[in-house]
Design brief:
heterodimer, A: 442 residues, alpha/beta, TIM Barrel, 9-stranded mixed sheet, B: alpha/beta, Rossmann fold, 2 domains, 4-stranded parallel sheet, globular
Chain lengths: 442, 321
């Protein structure tokens, strides 16, 4: 159980190969290739070693919708995607708005033992947007909640948002806002555009996101509190956040892999696998998001992994649930985005060589920064002796053909079925123990 | 030849559309005779699958199918999976198991006919009889047929015809299908509505856009008035019925702005006194009743062509004795 482990000849952040020795839950030595020994060897020749990925935005569905996902199946999906920590969103049934529920989720995560499951606490009771939930009790519970969000719904009331921002300062919390003006998006089915007009689907206009973000960054500045913006999806939102950061406002932001890759044209199939909230946007939005990820305006990539059972997608568009799987495909897409840069069309430049992938940037976007925002001390640590051994080992030399059927998630609603993504997760170490070995749960 | 399904007016080429209209014309002349039935679809099963009430459209399709001797099953699926009734998928699988050759679907959700046609649930032809605020292609075909009879002597396309579509463009499947089809047939279309009832991005549509009906009427060969629904007032699309009627309703004064030979269409059911005055609705220029008759012939043509009939066989079939 406490045998030492040697990760042989992996390349931290894509740099020169080294041997990494792990004893207990820590990295104890980094040595030239071939010089170290241990009880167990994990071969990592040709592989990139990253700090274990941290997802700030995951829906694990338990408690309440275990037919879509459980903490166990979601933990497996996360581990297979290279994650060592996920933040479980609060929109469960019951809602994670009390210390009791967040502790239950947190304990179940420990029992599954594949990733750190960090519960996100609801901002308002029952996600109803009326009364502040017991944020302090959740922060002070064994789950030590630091991220609070009504995700799925917007904290629309400006006074309530202000109070929540102020209140979480007492325990260094952050409010993660799902920015969506509810009145401007009543019945919304897809991005509002020329296409929505043609398809006769009610539009979700960019301004419904941008106006909330604009209000919230001003509130964050006024209160001096930390604001995190979930799943930024429009070019206009990027401009607002860029402006806010230039003024020194305490705001961080995330983009999802699907908003960095897919565009609204997919909706014209009326296949609900492409139905997601916020909706897929225009090509120009994708390009702006990519540029923002590369220049640091957007701090992190988060999956918004949203499992739904088949019956919730095997229906007409308007009846379908919103959301798509993300954990097991996130790193491949992120690698593609960081390698190819902002222009969606430029599959050429740099994409043919994984050497040009900026793995330091990936580590920042998917591990270091989300751990910092979520105040997860044991995650996102540098790959060096003394750090907790949370490591994702990625083989860039292979390709992965995505199939919803083959994913570990209990649901299959991936929009990427049939896509070929670069690379594959080979091994994952979670607190010094292998959670994934050779692409399978250890 | 038109495809396997009729889902959208946008899928029709000009040649496809003219072929449907020509076939409708031939079927009309055949069924004007004393025996109205053709044996063409004998033994074929046609299902009308209506998730929304629309007696007018349903009986039009039903009559069309019966005049072609098809067996017709009316499936009124009240409430879709949206209201936790039987899902679209299970309904489709049921119809497939019963051997439906064609399914005519009316559904409140935009794109539902696409799911029916493309999700692998059924093999038969799918005909869109109106989906949400998306499309209603057979309505556009019957409108084009009516326009062609009046403006082009029932021949060819609608090249150069000037048509205004007035009313709730935003929520209208009739408008979407008509803009697409009339443009394909060479007509010049202008949509007229208050800005709140125009879709985002309408500037990119293949038509002109106007907020002022009085500017447009003097320059049209036909005007199509759309039903405006009272519930739109609750959504703040316009202040009240009276103001809408004053600014966009077609009354005798406005009709006098139109060229004397211009015609007035309405897909029905009409709100007399709102978008159209009783005087206009009952005037000789109004062709609303003709549209209903033409609807049967156009739907016969669509069924005929989709289910494999050939126009050259028409005069050889048994009905003309």
């Amino acid at each position: 159980m406490n045998d030492s482990i040697l990760v042989r000849a992996g390349q931290p952040y894509g740099q020169e190969p080294v041997d990494i020795v792990i004893e207990g839950d820590r990295i104890t030595a980094i040595a030239p290739v071939g010089t170290a020994t241990a009880d167990r060897v994990l071969d990592a020749h040709g592989c990139v070693v990253l700090p274990g990925l941290v997802d700030l935005h995951t829906h694990l569905r338990e408690p309440g919708r275990e037919h879509a996902e459980t903490i166990e199946s979601g933990s497996k999906a996360a581990a297979l995607g290279g994650f060592t920590c996920v933040h479980a969103m609060a929109n469960t049934s019951p809602v994670a708005d009390t210390a009791g529920v967040v502790e239950q989720v947190w304990r179940r995560g420990i029992e599954c033992g594949l990733v750190d499951v960090r519960p996100v606490g609801a901002v308002t009771v029952g996600l109803e947007g009326r009364q502040m939930a017991e944020l302090g009790a959740m922060a002070g519970s064994a789950a030590a909640v630091r991220v609070f969000s009504d995700d799925g719904l917007c904290v629309h009331d400006p006074l309530l948002m202000r109070r929540a921002l102020e209140y979480v300062k007492a325990f260094d919390g952050v409010v993660a806002q799902h920015a969506q003006d509810p009145r401007l998006t009543e019945g919304a089915q897809m991005n509002e555009s020329e296409l929505s007009g043609r398809l006769g689907l009610a539009g979700w206009p960019a301004v419904a996101e941008e106006s909330i973000i604009a209000r919230d960054v001003l509130l964050a500045e006024h209160t001096g509190s930390r604001l995190h913006v979930c799943h930024v999806s429009t070019a206009g939102s990027v401009e607002v956040i860029r402006w806010a950061k230039s003024r020194g406002m305490p705001v961080t932001a995330e983009a999802t892999p699907h908003h960095l890759l897919l565009t609204e044209e997919l909706v014209s199939t009326f296949d609900p696998v492409y139905k997601v909230n916020p909706p897929l946007r225009r090509r120009g939005d994708v390009q702006a998001l990519r540029a923002a990820v590369l220049d640091g305006t957007i701090d992190i990539i988060a999956t918004d992994h949203a499992p739904h059972p088949r019956e919730d997608k095997d229906c007409e568009w308007a009846a379908a649930a919103m959301g798509m799987l993300g954990l097991e495909t996130a790193l491949g897409i992120a690698a593609q985005v960081v390698t190819r840069g902002a222009n969606t069309d430029s599959a050429g430049e740099g994409a043919d060589s994984n050497d040009s992938t900026d793995w330091q940037a990936i580590a920042q976007l998917m591990s270091v920064a989300p751990a910092r925002i979520g105040r997860v001390a044991d995650q996102g640590q540098p790959i060096e002796p003394g750090s907790i051994a949370n490591l994702a080992i990625w083989d860039p030399s292979v390709e992965t053909v995505v199939s919803g059927e083959r994913l570990a998630s209990r649901s299959g609603n991936t929009p990427y079925t049939g896509y070929t993504l670069p690379g594959a997760v080979r091994h994952v170490l979670f607190r010094g123990r292998p959670s994934v070995v050779d692409g399978g749960i250890a | 030849m038109i495809g396997r399904h009729l889902l959208s007016a946008q899928d029709l080429t000009s040649a496809d559309a003219v072929r449907i209209l020509d076939t409708a014309g031939e079927l009309a002349s055949v069924t004007d005779r004393s025996v109205k039935k053709l044996p063409t679809l004998r033994g074929r099963t046609v299902v009308t699958l209506f998730f929304e009430d629309s007696t007018r459209t349903r009986i039009s399709f039903e009559l069309a199918a019966k005049r072609l001797s098809a067996d017709v099953i009316n499936f009124a699926a009240k409430g879709s999976s949206l209201s936790k009734g039987e899902s679209l998928k299970d309904t489709a699988l049921t119809l497939e198991a019963m051997g439906a050759d064609a399914v005519i679907i009316r559904h409140g959700a935009s794109g539902a006919p696409y799911r029916l046609a493309n999700a692998g649930w059924i093999q038969g032809a799918v005909i869109n009889a109106g989906d949400g605020t998306h499309e209603h292609p057979t309505q556009a075909l019957l409108d084009a047929y009516t326009l062609r009879n009046h403006l082009r002597s029932g021949q060819g396309d609608l090249d150069g015809a000037r048509v205004a579509i007035v009313g709730d463009i935003l929520h209208s499947r009739v408008a979407r299908s008509n803009v697409a089809l009339l443009r394909t047939l060479g007509a010049h279309v202008t949509v007229v509505a208050p800005p709140t009832l125009l879709p985002y991005g309408v500037q990119a549509w293949p038509c002109d856009v106007s907020y002022d009906i009085d500017d447009v009427l003097p320059h049209v060969d036909a005007v199509m008035m759309l039903r405006v629904q009272a519930e739109r007032m609750a959504g703040s699309y316009f202040p009240n019925e009276l103001e809408y009627s004053r600014r966009y309703g077609l009354d005798s004064r406005r009709m006098a702005l139109m060229p004397s030979e211009a015609i007035v269409l309405h897909p029905g059911p009409m709100n007399r006194g709102v978008e159209i005055s009783a005087e206009v609705a009952d005037s000789p220029q109004a062709v609303v009743v003709e549209q209903v008759t033409n609807g049967v012939h156009v739907r016969m043509a669509v069924l005929y062509l989709l289910l494999g009939g050939r126009p050259e066989e028409l005069d050889l079939e048994g009905a003309d004795r």
